[in-house]
Amino acid sequence: KAGVTQTPRYLIKTRGQQVTLSCSPISGHRSVSWYQQTPGQGLQFLFEYFSETQRNKGNFPGRFSGRQFSNSRSEMNVSTLELGDSALYLCASSLNSQDTQYFGPGTRLTVL
Amino acid sequence: EDKVVQSPLSLVVHEGDTVTLNCSYEVTNFRSLLWYKQEKKAPTFLFMLTSSGIEKKSGRLSSILDKKELFSILNITATQTGDSAIYLCAAVDSNYQLIWGAGTKLIIKP
After folding, report:
1. Over 60: is that where the pLDDT of A40 sits?
2. CB A34 within 8 A of CB A76
3. Can you tell me the distance from the alpha carbon of A28 to that of A71, in angstroms, rounded to the nearest whole number?
4. Alpha-carbon torsion A81, A87, A91, A97, what sign?
5. Which residue from A minimizes the CA distance to B90?
6. Between chains, do B97 and A108 touch, taking CB under 8 Å as contact?
7. B105 within 8 A of B10, measured Cβ to Cβ
8. Rounded to 5, what percent of chain B is helix, strand, coil?
9. Closest Cβ–Cβ partner in A10, A41, A101 for B95
């Protein structure tokens, strides 16, 4: 079974731009969660989607948004990028919300 | 192809025992290694190791990295039932991408 995939693997943007990251969960998984990891830090929860609905949301500004499609693939969008948004963005999928999560390789975002 | 291999895949011990979890890696442009504890939901960050031979400690947990032999170990002493979890290691490459190991499922019996 293929694992969680994320695209792109890395990208560079400038302040004020927007970015969209994509996550394809493991086949059959309906829950997708997004996390931000800054170098040397732990994971900070962004939001979770289940069956195209946002179930939980972390403490991030409205510039961070997401959505989930009917095939469970999810996208995360960050608008008006700031330097502090530079981080590794991880996506994780699970069968249901309470099941073990499986993490993707991450997308490294650098904001200049 | 970059890869991270953890062993054992699962481990069952009794409370009070000491366990050693292994993580070996083959990563081009290796930067650092991370250990996480995962209990159902998001992993909890444990350690980040960048330098060889320097032990990091946090309570009963400790970890060390060997960049020559390309492995890391995570030690847990005087285990408790609350230590039951999946322990994940991930190697970080120069682009800050994570290459995950499959994890070690640790079960502590009372």
Report:
1. no
2. yes
3. 9
4. negative
5. A105
6. yes
7. yes
8. 5, 60, 35
9. A10
Q: What is the pLDDT of residues B36-59, one digit of tens each?
A: 998 766 677 788 898 888 899 999
Which residues of chain B register pLDDT less than 70?
40-42, 95-97
Say whether the peptide bond before residue A8 is cis (omega within 30 degrees of 0). yes
- Within a 13 Å sphere around the CA of B13, how many CA atoms are in the beta-carbon half? 23
Amino acid at A96: N
Write down the residue that tokens 């991270």 correspond to: B4
Q: Are A104 and A4 in contact (CB under 8 A)?
A: yes
How far B45 CA sits from the closest chain A CA (Å)? Answer: 5
Q: Do A101 and B44 make contact, defined as CB atoms within 8 angstroms? A: no
